[in-house]
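Let's inspect one such protein example.
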Amino acid sequence: MGCALHASIIITNYNYGRFLRECIDSALNQTYPNTEVVVVDDGSSDDSREIIAGYSDRIVPVLKANGGMGSAFNAGFAVSSGEVVCFLDADDTLLPAAIQRAVDVFIRQGVAKVHWPLQIVDEQGRETGVYPTQSLPHGDLRESVIRDGEMGYVWPMTSGNAWARDFLESLFPVPEDEYRSSAESYLATLAPAFGPVGRLLEPMSTYRMHGHSLSNRKLVSEYIKNSFRHRVALWNGFRKMRIDVNTELWPPSAESLHQILLACEDLTGLIPSGSSFIFVEWDQWGPGQIVAGCRAIPFLERDGRYWGKPLDDLTAIQEIERLRRAGASFMVFGWPAFWWLDYYSDLHRHLRSEFRCVLENERLVVFDLRR
């Protein structure tokens, strides 16, 4: 890479017209002058295409039928020319210095990708937090991803990454059937096998959480089914780079994923739609809804978020009663949390004596809290 790198920002959009102007403007207002903006509309039915047309020749428009995230990545990359490429979700934004800061790292370090934290905002753009909360890794992460696949290191979502074009050219096209969503995970997993990873310490983009965010509407069972397909696609990606891996050794194990999938099916047949249930150790199961139309409450819980383990049995019992009065209908223990039933023995006795155990197998113990 030379010192005057050309950069491409590829915005991928599907029915996010209400956020699209803010996103495009953030890409056009970068302090790094040598930047093109490509906007891919993936078959929107809202006013997105009218908004895109309003920018005339300030952007490179790509209008296509709906094909999903991987398809949109492929279409945008095919018309781009940047030596540094940033994919930007249409409901997110880039801070003005994002590309400049990323390009500086590419020039100094010759990395395969640069990533940075994301400032989380709500639908109105109010700041609510930062993701990830831990420091992002950097340097040579090759052995980590060969050994652990997608679990090899922590990376931000789509809008928190910039990629070296020579890496992308070695890998594209993204498998479209396997990556209708989460296409950034394909790139993020494989990039460290190509070269070192650079990082910026401060958030350089926003990540918008709202009612239509993918993570808010997808079922855990869908993630699990996709995980099996992703493993095959990632194995093929490593093979393209002439790297040998054994995807069956990647965590979580195939057996663990299968058990989670079966547990989701157990709960779907047990917990009525519209119910709320207390779910112990829910972070073990990944993002998304456990049961369609039902709310999983972490335990302990404060303002809908996991708050840590109870100090003692009495605290746990009091919290269950509080949540039950607030509408929780069931309490679910997944097998990674079965040790709770021994450690909090008084809690276990309370549940057994006061409520009916409606399911008990190698994956789940479920109590009906409805008296």
Q: What stands out?
A: Residues 271-368 form one domain.
